[in-house]
Design a protein that fits this description.
Length: 540
């Protein structure tokens, strides 16, 4: 989902997080160097410790993609805001032809959305795109959410020969909001179903049945393990859905059929893989991980703001061995709601909530009082096998200002991606683990809990714990800890036992987010009850 506080007029903004109070180092855009023309190898640049300065950008709902031709990472977000980076730390904004030609490119979709409002304007309603390189087409494919009132939304495809080139409309993948029989000829509903009337399951009181169908926005397009193209999509309401795409066109695969079955699939909308009955989440993103053999589904819950009763935004995680599901969390809960009594808000690993560590007070940017409402993420596995999560976050400042953050991820022993405590600044985890004397000490500790509420959410408690040399945990939380070498020979694995819950994750010595970027020991773990716990060492 988009936000309303940053519009198209701001796409050239390369300022720091805060527009007035604070300053940060931003990238000099006068020298847009291609890494392939430079004498420095990408791997060397990425891990040589030069990432301790950051270029902040404001991109809501960031979708990340890597361009092998230029060696750059691109993020595409709501309100036609885009940015790129060569190192995942220093970002700069840029513009596309879409920024000036959006009315022409998405004319069909704008006309559809105008059915929902007499004063509809597509400007401000282009949300949460997904960009992927289609191997068969040899094209960059931009899947755009065109939002409309009363669920008159659609997901459009525009294609270009270059990632930063001229995009042209190629078609529409899926529509929502159809309520009248004349909509059959306007959309592809009749072509797919053969119906001459809108089926009753899509209607409630003559309007779109939002407990059954989604708002058709928030696409994530990806290849499965067999090289087949899929799109997962949806925002709140009827659930998160999935459609098979045609590799040759990037559009819906019209040869792939879905049998309408309650809580499982719909002939037009595709497979429902998560949520339903109104409590669903949004911003789905799926990553196939060949190493673990799982598809990982991320979904954002609650309200995206930080200052009102539409807040509490955060990310949940599920996984499946099959692309179409079923998807489960660490506690064994299925992502899909099977009945109206099945509470979606109690499902999914909660990656993090509103948190604060004392090193942030010396950060020099908007995070100095803590992070709030981080969500609508994308994630990827880099060419060197490193894993990352990319998302937007708000701050504990009483405003709705937001910015992009990138964190490393690591697999725990149970095959769950756990998220590093601090943003990515070039730190490299020690594959052999860490000496006990580096781990033992006192830490600031945050239990991210399981809360899911759109009521105005405060900051989580930052507590203090001590990891003792005898393997015990003392302080505000008690239990046991150990560093383990896994079956894969990696020595950084961590296991904590606290009040009957087993947490598994890693120890990771990384740069903190203070201006001095001190290297500190951290831990990050996921519990078998879907909680995440983080720690940052403050003393020996």
């Amino acid at each position: 989902m988009c936000c309303g506080d940053r519009g198209i007029d701001n796409v050239g903004d390369t300022s720091s997080d805060n527009p007035s109070e604070l300053t940060e180092t931003t990238l000099d855009t006068s020298a847009d160097t291609d890494l392939e023309t430079d004498s420095v190898k990408y791997e060397d640049l990425k891990y040589d410790g030069t990432l301790l300065q950051t270029g902040r950008v404001t991109v809501h709902d960031p979708n990340i993609v890597y361009n092998h031709e230029t060696g750059e990472y691109y993020i595409f977000g709501s309100h036609m805001a885009w940015a790129k980076s060569s190192d995942l730390a220093k970002w700069r904004m840029f513009t596309l032809s879409v920024n000036t030609k959006f009315r022409k490119i998405f004319k069909t979709n704008g006309e559809w959305s105008s059915n929902g409002s007499s004063n509809y304007d597509i400007k401000g309603n282009l949300w949460a795109p997904c960009v992927i390189y289609n191997k068969a087409m040899g094209k960059w494919c931009l899947y755009m959410s065109v939002n409309g009132d009363n669920y008159y939304s659609s997901i459009a495809l525009a294609v270009s020969d270059k990632i930063n080139g001229t995009y042209e409309y190629a078609g529409t993948v899926v529509y929502s909001g159809f309520t009248k029989n004349e909509h059959i000829d306007i959309t592809d509903y009749g072509f797919i179903t053969g119906d001459t009337r809108i089926a009753s399951r899509y209607l409630s009181g003559g309007k779109w049945n939002s407990r059954y169908g989604p708002n058709c926005i928030d696409p994530c397009v990806f290849y499965d393990k067999d090289g087949e193209l899929w799109m997962v999509y949806g925002s709140w309401f009827g659930g998160i859905f999935m459609l098979k795409l045609d590799n040759e066109t990037g559009l819906r695969d019209y040869t792939y059929k879905y049998e309408t079955k309650v809580n499982v699939a719909d002939e037009y909308l595709g497979y429902r893989i998560s949520g339903g009955y109104g409590l669903t989440g949004e911003g789905p993103f799926i990553v196939w991980d060949e190493e673990t053999g799982y598809y990982y589904l991320y979904v954002s819950y609650c309200g995206l703001n930080a200052t009102d009763n539409f807040s509490g935004y955060h990310i949940r995680l599920f996984r499946s061995e099959n692309v179409t599901g079923p998807y489960y969390d660490a506690a064994g809960n299925e992502a899909l709601c099977r009945s109206a009594n099945d509470n979606q808000m109690k499902k999914g690993i909660k990656l993090f909530g509103n948190y604060y560590f004392s090193s942030l007070a010396q950060s020099g940017d908007n995070s100095y009082k803590g992070y709030m409402s981080g969500g609508h993420n994308s994630a990827f596995i880099d060419t060197d096998g490193q894993r990352y999560i990319v998302y937007h976050t708000r701050f504990n400042l009483g405003t709705e200002w937001h910015a992009v953050r990138v964190h490393q991820q690591f697999m725990n022993e149970d095959g769950w991606p756990i998220t590093a405590v601090y943003e990515f600044l070039g730190s490299v985890i020690s594959k052999d683990g860490y000496p006990t004397e580096e781990i033992v000490g006192t830490y600031e500790y945050v239990d991210h809990g399981l809360a899911a509420s759109t009521q105005r959410m405060g900051m989580l408690a930052t507590k203090t714990v001590t990891l003792n040399a005898d393997g015990t945990i003392s302080g505000d939380v008690t239990g046991t800890w150990e560093q383990r070498t896994g079956k894969d020979g990696l020595g950084y694995y961590a296991t904590f036992k606290i009040k009957g819950t087993v947490y598994k994750g890693v120890f990771f010595k990384q740069y903190d987010e203070s201006k001095s970027h001190n290297e500190v020991m951290t831990f990050t773990l996921i519990g078998d009850d879907d909680r995440s716990i983080w720690g940052s060492k403050i003393s020996d």
